[in-house]
Amino acid sequence: MSAILYGRPPAVFDPPADAVQTSPLIPGSAALEDLAPGSIDSAMIYAPPGVIERRHVLALALRALAPGGRLDVMAPKDKSGSRLKKELQDFGLTFEETAKAHHRRAIAVRPETVRGLDEALAAGGPRRLETLDAWTQPGVFAWDRIDPGSALLLQHLPPLSGAGADLGCGWGALSRAVLTSPQVTALRLVDLDRRAIEAARRNIEDARAVFDWADVRLLSEDADLDFVVANPPFHDGGAEDRRLGQAFVRKAAGMLKPGGVLWVVANRHLPYENEINAVFKRMKPVADTGGYKVLEATR
Predict the structure, then answer these.
(1) Tell me, what's the pLDDT at 236?
(2) Are 72 and 42 in contact (CB under 8 A)?
(3) Helix count (H) and strand count (E) of the chain?
(4) How high does pLDDT run on average in the chain?
């Protein structure tokens, strides 16, 4: 392997067509953390916005690069682009920095010695948090907590039964609760983030659980499930996109058998009710507090 790509940089930056994709948010990609040290010649990185996650990705790329290899990294100016200079300097790199298409871009040659690799690798890698009693990793949604939406859903979720799915499972907070019901026969955990699926796999040792690194929007609709639980995302690349949650609702409807139930939590301002009413037989508001709402919908 001579070149890797991490993420989807804007076309204006001419991403190499023959580079191996390594983003954990693109199902089927290679794992950047599995690349042998010094095994690649160039890396183009579309830097993620989180500080710990971004430094971890840069450290993984620098570890994989051979001395003299080319590191090409960019980020939107309003989402970490302004921090790239200092972070690359902290690794001991010299680089050329430019601005283009509302992004900052830095191109560096990997030196023989790089500072701070081990610290950045350790800080951004998988870890077990005692506060969650769970494995997780920076970059995963709500990686260090149970987010308020999921917490509200957990308060109102009844014991479920039959076969179901957790769409956008994260590190497995909802699935752990679902599987406490002995009436659940099978649970499919689906997430776009490979790191989330790997964490969930470590957190849930249950023969009823199967794990699927996949884009929920592309799942088959077999109409064979008894229930679906979901805390859908509503941001894409940092911008609010209500279509994501609406797509989750439609997908859940296609996966559920007649009489199957969707339990979904969302921010109060997100207009999912119309979408639910269009594809479900009936809907019941269950909770509305703290800026979040829980809805139960029957297929």
Answers:
(1) 62
(2) yes
(3) 8, 17
(4) 95
Is the model's pLDDT at 42 over the cut of 70? yes
Query: Residue 277 is which amino acid?
Result: N
pLDDT, tens only, 57-104:
999 999 999 999 999 999 999 877 788 999 999 999 999 999 999 999
Pairing of strands 103-109, 65-76: antiparallel
113, 92 in Cβ contact below 8 A?
A: yes
CB-based burial, 78-108: b 16+ in 10 Å, e otherwise: ebbbebbeebbeebebebeeeeeeebbbbeb
CA distance 141 to 153: 16
Backbone φ and ψ for 22, nearest 5 degrees, come out as -130, 15
Contacts of 80 (CB under 8 A, 6+ apart): 47, 48, 49, 51, 54
Q: Which two tokens stand for residue 253?
A: 């409807």
pLDDT in tens, 136-165: 999 999 999 999 999 999 999 999 999 999
Q: Where are the extended beta strands (E) located within the chain?
A: 3-6, 20-21, 40-46, 65-76, 95-100, 103-109, 127-129, 134-136, 162-167, 184-191, 209-213, 225-230, 235-236, 239-240, 256-267, 282-289, 292-298
Structure tokens at 206: 């249950």
Angle, helices 51-64 vs 117-124, to 10°: value is 130
Give the alpha-carbon dihedral of 244, 245, 246, 249, to 10 degrees: 130
